[in-house]
Sequence to fold (200 residues):
Amino acid sequence: MARRVFSDALPTVEAFAALLATEATVRGLIGPREVPRLWERHLLNCAVVTDLVDDGASVCDLGSGAGLPGLVMAIRRPDLTVTLVEPLLRRTTFLEEVVATLSLDNVQVRRGRAEDLHRNEAFDVVTSRAVAPLDRLTRWSLPLVRSGGLFLAMKGSSAEEEIVVARKTISSERGHLVGVIELGSEFLEPPVRVVQIRKK
Fold:
C-alpha cells in the first residue's frame, strides 16, 4: 500500500520513517508507542491529504511538530511548495535536519507562530493536524489562506462538534465550510477525516 501511495517517493518516505522511529522518538517528538504504527497512523494518514491539493500549490503546515502532515505531503508531492511553521526550537531543529538529510528542495522551515505570518504571507492551502480546536485553529489559519484557497484541518470523530462551535469564526474570517471529507477509506481504518474550508 505504501508503494501504491508514494510511488517513486517511497525510498524518501522510508528514510523519513526511520528518522521518526529514531531521532524523533529520542527527542520526544513521537511517542515510543507510535513507532509500530507509524505507517497507518501517520505516514499514509497524512499522505492522502494531498489528494485535496491542486498541482503546484503553496502549502503552509501550522504546528508542524515532527513534520506531520507537512513533510509527508512534500515527499509525496514534490510539485508542492511547503512551509512548515512551528514555534518550538527543538522541533524546528529536527525539521531542518530532516529537510537537509532528505534533500527536500520544496520545503522551508519557519520558526514562529501563525500570527507572526498574518498580513505578510498568503498560501493556496493551509493544513494542520492535532494542533488546537477548530475555532482557534480557524483564527490562526484562514488569515494565511489566499482568496479561493483552502484550509484543511485533519480532525477525527469530533469534527462535526468542532464545526458547530467554529461556525461564527469561520464566517467572520471569510471562510466557507465545504464539509468533512473522508480519505483513504479503502486502506485506512478509520479513514482520515478532513474539515475543508474555502476562503472567500
